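Database export, one record per block. Field names are fixed; values are copied verbatim from the stored entry.
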Amino acid sequence: MTTLQLPTSATVVTSVRPPGLWRRVSDVASLTYRNLVHIAREPLQLSDVTIQPILFTALFVYVFGAGVTMPHGGSYAQYAIAGMLALNLTTSAMGTAVGLSNDLNGGIIDRFRTLPMWRPAVLVGRSMTDLLTAIICTAFVAGTGLLVGWRPERGILYTLGGFAVFWLFSYAISWGCACLGIISKGPESAQGVGLVILFPLAIVSNALVPTAHMPPALRSFANWNPVSAVTAAARQLFGNPNPSMLVRAWPMQHPIAASLLWSLVLLAIFAPLATYLYRRRTTG
């Protein structure tokens, strides 16, 4: 008869999670990757940052641009590309609201709550995904712009600075859309309300036409609109025509400072608010 002897001690293998900040970074990276995998499985999710920018750029430059007279002359294509970036990046931010609302109403967040993860990583991961899609959108708008005659005039560093101004603003707007996605009852309502808010914000600005001939009330709103500040800042950095520099409103006289200030203010408001709303909705 043989006797089976068990070892007196056993080594228990456990997964080791990085502590502190690195654990949070790991959680954000994991959720960002998860969102990118979903996009890879359904590439049409990127239609608003790939197909739409090409269509909008060609439409506005060749159709509407033919009827727009630029102050002191100049090419509408040179003027319009910064506006196309503003229009596409602002409206595509609705993807944050739709994606987050879909997760919250689809049950996946309940599964995330059972994991030992940093709870705001869901929000940060979503915002990082949308920042990456904003960069893709910028590439498509810029590429189409180059084909229709747009040229940045101040070199690569200033051009990247103009893009970075848009990326920061898009990131800030995505946190506002995150709040909308959390409080909405479903993806459809999030998209509908987001369109009602963001589309007029993008249109009533200097993105597509100079503001000089707008009615006084709309002109005042447009000159203080954050989209106008970001667009004017990009035109200044690109070295493109910027009629807004003749407007006496402070944001138009200091567009780079105004755009950075608007982006930081929006982040300071909406990032904590989204975190609070998310905790309140997922607690219990």
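Remark 1: The CA atoms of residues 135 and 167 lie 7 Å apart.
Remark 2: DSSP finds twelve helices and no strands in the chain.
End of record.
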